[in-house]
Design brief:
This protein is of the alpha+beta class and about 60 residues long. It is built from two helices and two strands, in the order αββα. It has one domain. Strands 1-2 form a two-stranded antiparallel sheet. It is elongated and about 70 Å long.
Length: about 60
C-alpha cells in the first residue's frame, strides 16, 4: 500500500511537471493547459506495461 501511494504521488508530480499553462487565445483572463495529451499517453503506456507484468506473475503453491 505504501508503494502504491508513493508511485501515485510520483505520477502526480511528474504530470504537474509535464502539464503547463499558457495564455488562452480565446480570453485574456483564461489560461490553457498544454501537454495534457502526453500525460494521457504516458498513463496508457504504463497501464499496458502493468498488464504485461501482471501476466508474467506466477502464483506459488505450497508443497
Amino acid at each position: 500500500s505504501s508503494i502504491q501511494q508513493l508511485t501515485s504521488g510520483l505520477a502526480a508530480f511528474i504530470a504537474g511537471v509535464i502539464v503547463t499553462e499558457k495564455p488562452s487565445m480565446f480570453s485574456a483572463d483564461a489560461k490553457a493547459l498544454v501537454n495534457y495529451e502526453y500525460v494521457g499517453l504516458i498513463a496508457v503506456f504504463f497501464s499496458l506495461i502493468s498488464l504485461w507484468v501482471a501476466r508474467k506473475l506466477k502464483v506459488e503453491t505450497e508443497a
